[in-house]
């Protein structure tokens, strides 16, 4: 039994030695000081990016200061907006009133000239701050702000180059944030444009149709008034830029009810919708203008026809089509 125990101990010792050797080799391969420094720098940069991707404001600037200070290896860091107004500076005691005043002036100068500004001894020769380095933040072709760092020694070429690269990185993040904001504004404008496509011509025709039923069929007129009221209430709602397919189809049905009252049996509507796509989210009023164009330009000229609306599930996509058998379009124009 003792020999078996001894053999087990020897095996365990061998396994521990092998594990230590593998661990040492692994560290030697993937965890060199250079690799660790690169990993740390990338991680720090990602923290700054996370704060700045929402745009350059007081809160995002404050959140970005710690990683930016680490990246620049400076004693103090401050960020300014496009008007050279201070957004935030860190809590280091180097930011005395005189140093902050000099930093404000350096940020304004860097933005005006769109180049680096170096200020030596910003609060006198006895100040612990030996230099301020102000780098403009350029988003596109315009100044988006400024990065100002305070150092307790004269910055050499290496440090100046590092600060310039950090400023360029911040500029890229701010520009990406502005592009995201522009894209959101464009999406909003497109939705508003879709709403504007609700034709005044349709509204005029709908009201005329309702008026024609007031004497001949008052009950039908009341029904159409309700449909028209619900249609306009939905179309001009202020509840956001997106809607469910089921809600969009319900509003299209209101529109077609009003048009069928005008065309009578000459307007035929076929609806083929898979139940599983009714909850799909799509831009508000993305479909109604297509259906309206099909009626107005495709069918009105020939006094009626057929419209087919199809929504089907295709894996990760929902494919929606609007078709009509009206007059068609010149292929060259199309």
Describe the structure.
This protein folds into 3 domains: 1-31; 35-176, GAF domain (Beta-Lactamase); 197-324, Heat Shock Protein 90. The protein is 56% helix and 19% strand. It is built from 9 helices and 10 strands. Strand 1 and strand 2 form a beta hairpin. The radius of gyration is 34 Å and the shape is elongated. Residues 7-15 and 20-30 have low confidence and may be disordered.
List the helices and strands and how they pair.
Elements: H1 2-30, H2 33-52, H3 58-72, E1 76-80, E2 86-89, H4 97-113, E3 117-120, E4 131-139, E5 142-151, H5 157-196, H6 200-216, H7 218-235, E6 242-244, H8 245-263, E7 267-273, E8 281-283, H9 288-299, E9 305-314, E10 317-324
Parallel strand pairs: 7-9
Antiparallel strand pairs: 1-2, 1-5, 3-4, 4-5, 6-8, 9-10
Helix pairs in contact: 2-3, 2-5, 6-7, 6-8, 7-8, 8-9
């Amino acid at each position: 039994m003792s020999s078996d125990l001894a053999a087990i101990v020897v095996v365990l010792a061998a396994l521990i030695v092998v594990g230590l050797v593998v661990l040492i080799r692994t560290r030697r391969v993937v965890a060199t000081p250079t690799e660790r420094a690169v990993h740390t720098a990338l991680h720090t940069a990602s923290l700054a990016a996370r704060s700045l991707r929402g745009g350059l404001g007081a809160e995002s600037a404050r959140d970005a200061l710690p990683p930016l200070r680490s990246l620049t290896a400076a004693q103090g860091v401050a960020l300014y907006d496009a008007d050279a107004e201070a957004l935030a500076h860190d809590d280091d005691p180097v930011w005395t009133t005189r140093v902050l005043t000099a930093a404000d002036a350096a940020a304004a100068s860097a933005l005006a000239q769109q180049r680096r500004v170096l200020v030596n001894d910003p609060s006198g020769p006895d100040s612990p701050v030996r230099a301020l380095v102000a780098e403009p933040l350029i988003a596109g072709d315009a100044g988006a702000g400024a990065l100002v760092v305070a150092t307790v020694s004269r910055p050499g070429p290496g440090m100046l180059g590092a600060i310039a690269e950090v400023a360029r990185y911040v500029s890229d993040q701010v520009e990406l944030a502005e592009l995201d904001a522009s894209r959101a504004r464009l999406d909003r404008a497109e939705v508003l444009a879709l709403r504007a496509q609700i034709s005044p011509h349709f509204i005029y025709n709908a009201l005329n149709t309702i008026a024609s039923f007031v004497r001949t069929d008052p009950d039908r007129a009341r029904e159409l008034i309700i449909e028209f009221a619900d249609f306009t209430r939905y179309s001009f709602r202020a509840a956001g830029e997106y809607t469910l397919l089921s809600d969009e189809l319900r509003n299209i049905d209101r529109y077609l009810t009003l048009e069928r009252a005008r065309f009578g049996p000459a307007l035929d509507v076929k609806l083929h919708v898979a139940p599983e796509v009714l909850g799909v989210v799509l831009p508000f009023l993305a479909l109604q203008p297509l259906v309206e164009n099909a009626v107005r330009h495709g069918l009105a000229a020939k006094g009626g026809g057929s419209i087919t609306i199809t929504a089907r599930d295709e894996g990760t996509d929902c494919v929606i089509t609007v078709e009509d058998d009206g007059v068609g379009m010149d292929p060259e124009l199309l």
